[in-house]
Protein backbone atom coordinates (compact mmCIF):
# COMPACT_ATOMS: atom_id res chain seq x y z
CA UNK A 1 0.00 0.00 0.00
CA UNK A 2 1.39 3.37 -0.95
CA UNK A 3 1.29 6.15 1.63
CA UNK A 4 -0.45 9.42 0.96
CA UNK A 5 2.87 11.25 1.02
CA UNK A 6 4.26 9.02 -1.74
CA UNK A 7 1.12 9.52 -3.80
CA UNK A 8 1.54 13.30 -3.50
CA UNK A 9 5.18 12.96 -4.60
CA UNK A 10 4.20 10.91 -7.68
CA UNK A 11 1.47 13.35 -8.57
CA UNK A 12 3.89 16.24 -8.29
CA UNK A 13 1.88 18.09 -5.67
CA UNK A 14 4.71 17.98 -3.10
CA UNK A 15 8.47 17.97 -3.67
CA UNK A 16 10.95 15.81 -1.74
CA UNK A 17 12.29 18.62 0.47
CA UNK A 18 8.81 19.54 1.76
CA UNK A 19 8.04 15.89 2.44
CA UNK A 20 11.37 15.50 4.28
CA UNK A 21 10.68 18.63 6.38
CA UNK A 22 7.18 17.35 7.23
CA UNK A 23 8.63 13.99 8.36
CA UNK A 24 11.26 15.76 10.48
CA UNK A 25 8.64 18.01 12.09
CA UNK A 26 6.45 15.00 12.82
CA UNK A 27 9.30 13.08 14.46
CA UNK A 28 10.31 16.15 16.54
CA UNK A 29 6.75 16.46 17.80
CA UNK A 30 6.68 12.78 18.80
CA UNK A 31 9.99 13.15 20.68
CA UNK A 32 8.72 16.18 22.56
CA UNK A 33 5.52 14.34 23.47
CA UNK A 34 7.49 11.35 24.76
CA UNK A 35 9.80 13.60 26.82
CA UNK A 36 7.06 15.77 28.40
CA UNK A 37 4.40 13.07 28.66
CA UNK A 38 1.85 15.23 26.88
CA UNK A 39 -0.15 14.05 23.97
CA UNK A 40 -1.80 16.14 21.35
CA UNK A 41 -5.52 16.24 21.86
CA UNK A 42 -7.59 14.95 19.05
CA UNK A 43 -10.71 17.09 19.37
CA UNK A 44 -12.71 15.07 16.90
CA UNK A 45 -11.98 11.89 18.83
CA UNK A 46 -13.03 13.53 22.11
CA UNK A 47 -16.24 14.83 20.55
CA UNK A 48 -17.02 11.37 19.20
CA UNK A 49 -16.40 9.84 22.64
CA UNK A 50 -18.69 12.43 24.24
CA UNK A 51 -21.45 11.67 21.74
CA UNK A 52 -20.97 7.95 22.33
CA UNK A 53 -21.17 8.47 26.10
CA UNK A 54 -24.40 10.49 25.76
CA UNK A 55 -25.94 7.84 23.50
CA UNK A 56 -25.01 5.11 25.97
CA UNK A 57 -26.62 7.12 28.80
CA UNK A 58 -29.82 7.56 26.75
CA UNK A 59 -29.86 3.83 25.99
CA UNK A 60 -29.45 3.01 29.70
CA UNK A 61 -32.36 5.31 30.61
CA UNK A 62 -34.56 3.80 27.89
CA UNK A 63 -33.69 0.28 29.07
CA UNK A 64 -34.50 1.20 32.68
CA UNK A 65 -37.90 2.60 31.64
CA UNK A 66 -38.65 -0.45 29.52
CA UNK A 67 -37.64 -2.77 32.38
CA UNK A 68 -39.84 -0.84 34.85
CA UNK A 69 -42.81 -1.04 32.46
CA UNK A 70 -42.26 -4.78 31.96
CA UNK A 71 -42.04 -5.32 35.71
CA UNK A 72 -45.26 -3.35 36.29
CA UNK A 73 -46.98 -5.38 33.59
CA UNK A 74 -45.81 -8.64 35.20
CA UNK A 75 -47.09 -7.52 38.61
CA UNK A 76 -50.48 -6.65 37.11
CA UNK A 77 -50.62 -10.08 35.43
CA UNK A 78 -49.91 -11.73 38.80
CA UNK A 79 -52.71 -9.73 40.43
CA UNK A 80 -55.21 -10.62 37.69
CA UNK A 81 -54.27 -14.29 37.98
CA UNK A 82 -54.68 -14.27 41.77
CA UNK A 83 -58.09 -12.60 41.50
CA UNK A 84 -59.31 -15.00 38.81
CA UNK A 85 -58.21 -18.06 40.77
CA UNK A 86 -59.61 -16.92 44.12
CA UNK A 87 -62.69 -14.83 43.40
CA UNK A 88 -65.84 -15.59 45.35
CA UNK A 89 -69.44 -15.51 44.17
CA UNK A 90 -71.22 -12.32 45.12
CA UNK A 91 -74.73 -13.76 45.01
CA UNK A 92 -76.41 -17.09 45.43
CA UNK A 93 -79.77 -16.72 43.71
CA UNK A 94 -80.18 -13.05 42.90
CA UNK A 95 -83.60 -12.59 44.58
CA UNK A 96 -82.46 -11.83 48.12
CA UNK A 97 -79.48 -9.68 47.14
CA UNK A 98 -78.85 -6.52 49.07
CA UNK A 99 -76.82 -3.46 48.11
CA UNK A 100 -73.41 -3.11 49.69
CA UNK A 101 -71.89 0.35 49.43
CA UNK A 102 -68.16 0.99 49.65
CA UNK A 103 -65.78 3.80 48.83
CA UNK A 104 -63.07 3.40 46.23
CA UNK A 105 -60.87 6.43 45.92
CA UNK A 106 -63.26 9.37 46.18
CA UNK A 107 -66.32 7.58 44.78
CA UNK A 108 -69.00 5.59 46.51
CA UNK A 109 -69.59 2.34 44.65
CA UNK A 110 -72.34 -0.25 45.05
CA UNK A 111 -72.42 -3.99 44.54
CA UNK A 112 -75.26 -6.40 45.16
CA UNK A 113 -74.41 -9.36 47.38
CA UNK A 114 -76.20 -12.07 49.28
CA UNK A 115 -76.71 -11.56 53.02
CA UNK A 116 -74.10 -14.23 53.83
CA UNK A 117 -71.51 -12.56 51.61
CA UNK A 118 -72.35 -9.22 53.21
CA UNK A 119 -71.62 -10.68 56.63
CA UNK A 120 -68.26 -11.97 55.39
CA UNK A 121 -67.45 -8.51 54.01
CA UNK A 122 -68.35 -6.78 57.27
CA UNK A 123 -66.36 -9.32 59.29
CA UNK A 124 -63.33 -8.82 57.02
CA UNK A 125 -63.13 -12.40 55.78
CA UNK A 126 -63.80 -11.23 52.22
CA UNK A 127 -62.22 -8.14 50.68
CA UNK A 128 -63.20 -6.13 47.62
CA UNK A 129 -60.67 -5.82 44.79
CA UNK A 130 -61.30 -3.36 41.95
CA UNK A 131 -59.68 -4.24 38.61
CA UNK A 132 -60.58 -1.57 36.10
CA UNK A 133 -64.37 -1.61 35.83
CA UNK A 134 -64.83 -5.00 37.52
CA UNK A 135 -65.33 -5.55 41.22
CA UNK A 136 -64.35 -8.93 42.65
CA UNK A 137 -64.46 -10.46 46.12
CA UNK A 138 -61.41 -12.40 47.32
CA UNK A 139 -60.38 -13.90 50.66
CA UNK A 140 -58.43 -11.63 53.02
CA UNK A 141 -55.20 -13.65 52.60
CA UNK A 142 -55.23 -13.10 48.83
CA UNK A 143 -56.14 -9.43 49.29
CA UNK A 144 -53.07 -9.01 51.52
CA UNK A 145 -50.86 -10.41 48.75
CA UNK A 146 -52.51 -8.12 46.18
CA UNK A 147 -52.11 -5.14 48.50
CA UNK A 148 -48.35 -5.79 48.72
CA UNK A 149 -48.15 -5.44 44.94
CA UNK A 150 -50.64 -2.60 44.39
CA UNK A 151 -52.50 -1.11 47.38
CA UNK A 152 -54.78 1.04 45.21
CA UNK A 153 -56.73 -2.00 43.98
CA UNK A 154 -57.83 -3.28 47.40
CA UNK A 155 -60.84 -1.78 49.22
CA UNK A 156 -60.70 -2.42 52.96
CA UNK A 157 -63.74 -2.08 55.19
CA UNK A 158 -62.52 0.12 57.98
CA UNK A 159 -63.02 -1.43 61.39
CA UNK A 160 -63.33 1.62 63.61
CA UNK A 161 -62.91 1.44 67.32
CA UNK A 162 -65.36 4.02 68.59
CA UNK A 163 -63.84 6.26 71.22
CA UNK A 164 -66.56 7.62 73.45
CA UNK A 165 -65.97 10.81 75.35
CA UNK A 166 -67.13 11.01 78.96
CA UNK A 167 -69.47 13.96 78.45
CA UNK A 168 -70.87 12.83 75.09
CA UNK A 169 -74.67 13.23 75.21
CA UNK A 170 -75.11 10.63 72.45
CA UNK A 171 -72.95 7.94 74.05
CA UNK A 172 -75.99 5.72 74.60
CA UNK A 173 -76.90 5.88 70.90
CA UNK A 174 -74.11 4.03 69.10
CA UNK A 175 -74.20 3.73 65.32
CA UNK A 176 -73.17 0.27 64.14
CA UNK A 177 -70.30 0.00 61.66
CA UNK A 178 -72.27 -2.27 59.38
CA UNK A 179 -75.22 0.11 59.04
CA UNK A 180 -76.77 -0.27 55.61
CA UNK A 181 -76.99 3.07 53.81
TrEMBL record:
<dbReference type="Pfam" id="PF09831">
    <property type="entry name" value="DUF2058"/>
</dbReference>
<feature type="region of interest" description="Disordered">
    <location>
        <begin position="21"/>
        <end position="44"/>
    </location>
</feature>
<dbReference type="InterPro" id="IPR018636">
    <property type="entry name" value="DUF2058"/>
</dbReference>
<feature type="compositionally biased region" description="Basic and acidic residues">
    <location>
        <begin position="34"/>
        <end position="44"/>
    </location>
</feature>
<protein>
    <recommendedName>
        <fullName>Nucleoprotein/polynucleotide-associated enzyme</fullName>
    </recommendedName>
</protein>
Amino acid sequence: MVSLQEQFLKAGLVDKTKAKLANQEKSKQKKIERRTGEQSVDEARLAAQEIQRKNAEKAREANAQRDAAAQQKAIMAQIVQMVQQNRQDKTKNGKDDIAYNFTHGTKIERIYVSPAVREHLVAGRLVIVVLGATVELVPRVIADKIEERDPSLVVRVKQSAAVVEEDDPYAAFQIPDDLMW
